[in-house]
């Protein structure tokens, strides 16, 4: 794009120079005032083809050239002054019109780009919401369906109850999808925590919640929405991608930051290629966190898998320094070691740090 602009400017300057050179012999050979009027058209051309600053230089050069030619052609000084005046006025008018046209074109292009970016952002929002909604609910439906199939012969009444739960989950998921597409859905953090406990219990994973009092600090709607998605996606990953026996969801407040840690003691199930790959859910979750200026980390640790997020309590963009994060990691490791000493874990369960 820059190269094309440079070529257009170079072509405009070349044409401007050729026109000026052609005007010189016409004025000198004919010696009439009418031939000086050629510089009006040349000035208008420069105003329409050149940027404003370059137009000023071009008009000044044309005025100087016209003055020299007028003196050489023995024209009166009053004609000289009028010529200079008209050269400047015409160049300024055409430059103003050209600037207005170019600005209008840029504004139209900017509006088209803004509309395109808005559509792209909305598609990404819907994709993230649908992934989070369906991933969580379909995991619950799959678990309950498997449980109902095992209980069908041994405990048909309980199997029927599980099937009714599946129907309720499916209906609720359909409603959530409709609300998400309509941009009306705002997940509630407490509801997500209750749903997480239910999902983990159905999957046979022990559930532990720490820092419940910290939830009172989540007062900003935008912050609550992101916290809810963190809980949902974190628990869904525990069910779908690990063999965990225990899952711990921990909230803590440090200064103006809210820290959320979801850890489990299970080994991450590798993808088909044999490597652990980041899913669309974690990528979408990281985008949500970064939009608020938070910090996102997810990956395997020595005793399982950990998802850790830091968010500003104001719900607005901020910065979390690496030094602060490192200090908090050290504090968390110390807390885990203290838990080991006090016997906070059973012998058959790895820590949910």
Please explain how this structure is put together:
This protein is α+β, with helices and mostly antiparallel strands. The protein folds into 2 domains: 115 residues, no CATH class; 152 residues, Histidine kinase-like ATPase, C-terminal domain (Heat Shock Protein 90, 2-Layer Sandwich). The chain has 10 helices and 5 strands; from the N terminus they run H-H-H-H-H-H-H-E-H-E-E-H-E-E-H. A 5-stranded mixed β-sheet has the order 1-2-3-5-4, with helices on one face. The longest helix has 78 residues. The radius of gyration is 36 Å and the shape is rod-shaped. The two termini are 52 Å apart. The C terminus is likely disordered.
Going by helix content, strand content and strand pairing, the class is: alpha+beta
Biggest pleated sheet = 5 strands, mixed
Task: Describe the global form.
Answer: rod-shaped
**Fraction of residues in H or I helices:** 55-70%
CATH homologous superfamily label of the largest domain? Histidine kinase-like ATPase, C-terminal domain
N-to-C order of helices and strands: HHHHHHHEHEEHEEH
The amount of beta strand, in percent, is 5-15%
**Widest β-sheet, arrangement of strands:** 1-2-3-5-4
Distance between the termini: 52 Å
Can you count the beta strands? Answer: 5
Q: What low-confidence regions span 5 or more consecutive residues with pLDDT below 50?
A: 271-277, 319-331, 333-353
- Which topology of the largest domain does CATH recognise? Heat Shock Protein 90
């Amino acid at each position: 794009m820059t190269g094309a602009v440079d070529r257009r400017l170079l072509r405009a300057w070349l044409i401007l120079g050729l026109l000026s050179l052609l005007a010189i012999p016409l004025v000198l050979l004919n010696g009439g005032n009418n031939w000086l009027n050629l510089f009006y058209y040349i000035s208008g051309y420069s105003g329409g083809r050149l940027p404003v600053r370059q137009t000023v230089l071009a008009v000044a050069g044309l005025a100087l050239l016209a003055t020299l030619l007028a003196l050489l052609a023995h024209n009166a000084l009053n004609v000289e002054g009028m010529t200079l005046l008209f050269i400047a006025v015409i160049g300024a008018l055409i430059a103003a019109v050209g600037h207005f046209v170019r600005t209008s074109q840029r504004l139209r292009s900017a509006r088209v780009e803004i509309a395109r970016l808005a559509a792209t952002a909305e598609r990404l929002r819907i994709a993230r919401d649908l992934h989070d909604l369906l991933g969580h609910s379909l995991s619950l439906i799959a678990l309950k369906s498997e449980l109902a199939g095992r209980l069908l012969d041994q405990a048909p009444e309980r199997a029927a109850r599980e099937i009714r739960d599946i129907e309720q989950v499916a209906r609720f998921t359909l409603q959530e999808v409709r609300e998400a597409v309509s941009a009306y859905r705002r997940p509630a953090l407490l509801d997500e925590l209750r749903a997480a406990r239910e999902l983990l219990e159905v999957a046979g994973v022990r559930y532990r919640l720490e820092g419940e009092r910290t939830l009172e600090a989540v007062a900003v709607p935008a912050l609550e929405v992101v916290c809810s998605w963190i809980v949902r996606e974190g628990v869904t990953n525990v069910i779908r991608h690990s063999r965990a026996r225990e899952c711990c969801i921990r909230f803590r407040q440090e200064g103006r930051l809210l820290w959320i840690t979801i850890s489990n003691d299970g080994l991450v199930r590798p993808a088909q290629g044999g490597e652990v790959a980041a899913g669309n859910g974690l990528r979408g979750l990281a985008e949500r966190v970064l939009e608020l200026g938070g910090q996102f980390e997810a990956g395997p640790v020595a005793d399982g898998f950990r998802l850790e997020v830091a968010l500003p309590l104001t719900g607005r963009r901020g910065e979390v320094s690496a030094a602060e994060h490192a200090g908090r990691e050290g504090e968390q490791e110390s807390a885990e070691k203290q838990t080991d000493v006090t016997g906070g874990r059973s012998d058959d369960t790895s820590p949910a740090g």
